[in-house]
Amino acid sequence: MQADSSFRLSAALLAAALACGLWALWPVAFPAPRVPTVAHTKLPMAPPITAPTAAPEYPATASIAPLISGQLNLNTATQEQLESLPKVGPAMAARIVAGRPYRSLQDLDAVKGVGPSLMTTLSPLVTF
């Protein structure tokens, strides 16, 4: 009986030692997931946006005629030519056509949706 109880005790001690050994190997067998780190990089400052000082001149070829070249006359321009101006979409072009005739930038400023930003952008590109 003595031998049987000492055998059970040594088996229990061996099982406990094995369990502790396996527990110590847990981080090696099942490593923790790596958490990504975030690196913050400062971006360079963008140069200030300036309005064009002169209307661009585009050359015409035998097969291609640009929609606009130089300053665009608001009183004679087609809807497509008006839409090719920066910040002018189909609705704004239709309102510009409906507000004709124009004699100055103040007349253009009376059109709904035309504000200081659009006036600054369009002033070197249009004529009356």
Summary tags:
DNA polymerase, domain 1, mainly alpha, 42% helix, 5 helices, two-stranded parallel ribbon
SSE arrangement, N to C: HEHHHHE
Oligomerization state: single chain
- In which range does the helix fraction lie? 40-55%
The count of helical stretches stands at: 5
Give the CA-CA distance, first to last residue: 118 Å
Low-confidence stretches: none
Q: Which CATH-level-2 architecture of the domain at 72-127?
A: Orthogonal Bundle
Task: Characterise this structure.
The protein has helices spanning 2-29, 79-83, 90-98, 105-109, 116-122; strands spanning 72-73, 126-127. The chain has 128 residues and is mostly helical. Among the domains are: 1-30; 72-127, DNA polymerase, domain 1. The protein has a two-stranded parallel sheet. The longest helix has 28 residues, at 2-29.
SSE arrangement:
Layout: H1 2-29, E1 72-73, H2 79-83, H3 90-98, H4 105-109, H5 116-122, E2 126-127
Parallel strand pairs: 1-2
